[in-house]
Structures are given as C-alpha cells and as structure tokens.
Amino acid sequence: MSQNPKRLRQNVPYHDEFVLSVATQYKKDGYKVHADIDGWEKPEAINGFVPDVHAFPSKSMQEDDKVELIVEVETCDTCDDETQTKSQFQAFARYARENEAQFEVGVPTSCLGRAQRSANTWGIKVGDWWAFPN
Length: 134
Hints:
This protein is 32% helix and 19% strand. It is α/β, with parallel strands linked by helices. The protein has one domain.
C-alpha cells in the first residue's frame, strides 16, 4: 500500500477503512474493483500513482452506469497537501478526462470544504465526493 508521507500514523487505519467502504460499495454495485488495501487485487499505477480504488464496469451493468471510476481517499492531514495529494489528483483527473472515466475523492466530513477548495484552486475536476463521518 502506498501512503502519503504526510498522513499521520494514527490516520492510516481510518484511511484504509474509507477505502474498504468505497471498494465494497462499488463491488455491490456490480463493478470489478481493485483496491490498494490488504485482501484486494491491487490497482495498477495511473500516470505514476496508484489510486486507492479503481473500479471497472461489468458487462452485466446497465449501459448508463458503465463508467470506469478512479477514487482517491484522503484524511484531513493530507486533503490539501500541495505536493503528493495535488500531484495524485492531477494524474487521476487527467486519466479520467482522457479515458472518459470519472475521478472521485473521499474525505472526512469535517474537511470536505477544505478538500473541495483545494481541488478547485488546483483546477481539478472531481466527478463525485464521498464524505465520511469523523
């Protein structure tokens, strides 16, 4: 698992719990899911970074729901990081744009506004936001 070096050690289990929640939900929705946590098939790197979740639509899904998803989960200590997080967001958003996929971000509710402002400042289009309780 690749972790943001600025993530506080005590937040790693919280981050991984978020990743598991997103991966499990998309699996229930019919996606083939790769997740960067123990027990799941690992996602491949995208533009030099490994996303937390990479979900691919299955053939059984309705045509309207068939969109590839890239999800990055951040904690409050990393959601507005100008180096690692910004670079990841740029890489995943570029991939989504070039491949008709959707880039999504998950953060704790308490820092959702801060994360959204950072993405806007960086000029990054986020297709959907996941907000998790603190």
